[in-house]
Amino acid sequence: MGKEKNMDKELSDMLRGVPPQNILISFDGKPAKSLADYAKEQQEKARQKKRRPRDDRER
Q: What pTM was estimated for this model as a whole?
């Protein structure tokens, strides 16, 4: 666990000050996207979940 925290801190220090559009990330073998694009997609998904009507409510 100590090595993992140390690595997290190292990565955090390396990426500090780097604009999100310059950081590329890839999950599950999908093509890389910029961190800014990924964050924008996550916000849109969260917004859609909030707007979704609840069918289980009685009217």
A: 0.58
